Amino acid sequence: MNRRYHIGNYSFLLAFTILATGMMGIMYVTSADPSFTNKQILGLCLGTTAMVIVSLIDYNKLFHYIWFFYGANVLALLAVLFVGKTVGGAQRWFAIGGLSLQPSEFAKIIMILFVAYFIREHEDDLNEFRVLVKLALFCAIPLFLVVQEPDLSTTLDITFILCGMIFVGGLNLKFVRNILLIAVPVFGIFIFYIQTPNQILLKDYQVNRIMSFIEPEKYSNTTRFQQDNSVMAIGSGQIFGKGLDNNTISESNNTITNGTLDEEETSDTSITVKDTELVSEQQTDFIFSVIGEEKGFVGCMIVIGLLAFIVVQCIMIANRAGDTAGKLIAVGMAGLICFQSFINIGVATAILPNTGLPLPFISYGPTSLVCNMTGMGLVLNVGLQRRY
User: Fold this and answer.
1) What is the pTM of this model?
2) Within 10 Å of residue 124's Cβ, how many Cβ atoms?
3) Fewest CB atoms less than 10 Å from the CB: which of 27, 74, 123, 158?
């Protein structure tokens, strides 16, 4: 059935907030490394186009092709393990011309759609054991393929998102209680096990990242190096920051000792962490250190406020959704933006173990930007079909 949309139900405020956040991302990416600017602009243009088009397509019609999307998602995740481009020991990207496509980013949106569809079809029997096992198996296949890339951070991110959707979809609190009773001691055993010689669950660099969070002093010159310098960069920005794209190196006698910037003298000019390359890949996982250093506390709060506003808008749309599937799509995207933002900022401020996830709409990554904006297009369509 074709649905007539009323323009008054279109959340222009949400759409404009997303665009504003994306343009702010281009500004910070350019400041971190201008060589990535053009691709980020291309990503924002493609993402905006996708968001507008998807926002006008009834999400219920997409469910007719959900098994095709699911199958294509699994095949893409499988193919990247064999023919994908390897960067830094991880095989996560398809190289197409001068662009890189990351299937795991598409997997986030496709799995949000799939779980929304599955729960809609099983509203009455969701809490039956066989149904939960069936859903877990369908989710486990793409998650297993993502973790093989290896990409543990994205695997955990998708898991958090889907768990939130299942909970909102009507999961019995008894299941949640039982899962927590099992998960807490298992997590303790897991932490103990990964410290044993010849453990097989995680790669060495993953273990080092976890242990650097537990024992930061022991890893201060190795795994913890990035995070400590990120915190230093954010703190050095103080209230208003050093200024956008500030690359004026002080004339004082600045030296770098064991990855730490020592200032013997000060002057009116300043030196930035970016100049000294104490934090690598600032345009992606550590973009928040650029924000904190160059725009200070005020700039950080503006970015956090914009992301929080997007999450709140998604939740409001979910609350007014016309059906369960629409509500879960909006909740899934709210979870994506919320969890991923919390993890990215948590890593940059050293309150979480070091792991690689982009800051939504801000970090460099055309694939991530296009996928996130496509997902927000789904949310905008849910808003068009709201109850009131």
Assistant:
1) 0.88
2) 9
3) 123
